[in-house]
Design brief:
Strand content: 15-25%
CATH architecture of the largest domain: 3-Layer(aba) Sandwich
Shape: globular
Number of strands: 16
CATH class of the largest domain: Alpha Beta
Distance between the termini: 42 Å
Largest sheet: 8 strands, mixed
CATH superfamily of the largest domain: NAD(P)-binding Rossmann-like Domain
Radius of gyration: 21 Å
Amino acid sequence: MAINMNNEKENPRRNFIKKSALAATAINLSGLFWESEAKAMAKVIELNSDKPASEQKTVALIANIYRNSAHADVIATKLFVGIPTDDGMVAPQVKIVSVWIDQIGDNDTGVQIAGMNGAKMYDTIAGALTLGGDKLAVDAVIYVGEHGDYDKSRYGIKMYPRMNYLEQIFRVFDASNKSVPLFNDKHLSYSWLDSKWVYDRSKELNVPMMAGSSLPFCWRDKPLEHPLGVKISEAVGIGYASLDAYGFHVAEILQCMVERREGGETGVSSVLGLSGADVWKAMDDGRINLELVEAACSKIQGRKEGNMRDLVKDPNAILVEYTDGTKGAIVMLTGYVNQGWAYAANTSQGQVATEFVLDHSMSYSHFSYLTLNIQKFIVTGKPTAPVERTLLTSGISDMGIRSLVDGKKIETPFLNIKYSAAGFEPIRPTAPRPEGQSVGPWPPKGYEFIIPERFKK
């Protein structure tokens, strides 16, 4: 179950993020945080962390790019300067000591931020993991393989080199006869075959691994988590934009909910990608449950007023048939839900629905909660979510887009991925929407250069 962030007795996450004066004073520190110089703030974090910097877990950051608002920024910068949450600023419990960035452009901020915080830049992935030596020399690795200038496949999928760079990380682990916690942002690869290779290689090397989207760790309005073992007959996840860029996030919304059903996860037997009028037809003939779509969309506070079919010019969907008969659908409704995300399901306890809420302030603090989960994983060595979830969503996303382009249903016996959601303890906010330090102020003085242009007056 998710950790209750407001209950001391049920709050083991405080062992990792709130045993310091910095965290204990919580929201009262917002003024100090804004007024502090960057290096002074780094010192405050070191003094108030659970362990001094010399004893903190060391991390190598591997990133495609590092610029304002890119995933490397909204994850790693929080580990450098502090993590804004609903409860206040949280002192990082791990220390990024080395950085490798694939594409360093004119808009790069990572080199400067690394320098401000004593992290060394390296020319190779192996160098960052070995700190320039021969063997693995860090306690954990964070790979942020999102964003950057890369070619698209024949299916229109951006071919991020995740497998290529993860292979280099695994090679260092193998040569060092040692593996450490590895977090991989978003899907394991754009290709199912590459994703499966990454998963299999991690198992061969006994790599503690965690991966996926920030969406499973964000706010839910209303708060909703299925009890383990609930019966689910049908569920839908709602999002916007392209299946390639954002469909994966909706797959993770869907999967983080339905994996808790009776019998646990049993895998996916087939997927069908649809677009345009075929999506509306699927709603009309019941292949996509229109009632569930409407229930989910009704929870999105920022959706547009008006008729869904008039507002959405190019709907896209992936129909997911699970091997146990459960029906799922990923539905992209650009133009209607604005920047909204939602979920609805028919269960043995009735119909349920909720909005998955992100923070659109400069803090992008939904990534704060992802970062807290990454940090807990690194400190404990135990993932807060099953990597098998992301293996499955990687396959659903790839096969769904292939099905859409090829115009036919794809049988997926290779997605017979079985796992249980039991025993994982993710950190999530308990409020329904962002509040407190989550919505600012951000960034600290000295880091104004990371403010995105759209926030500048």
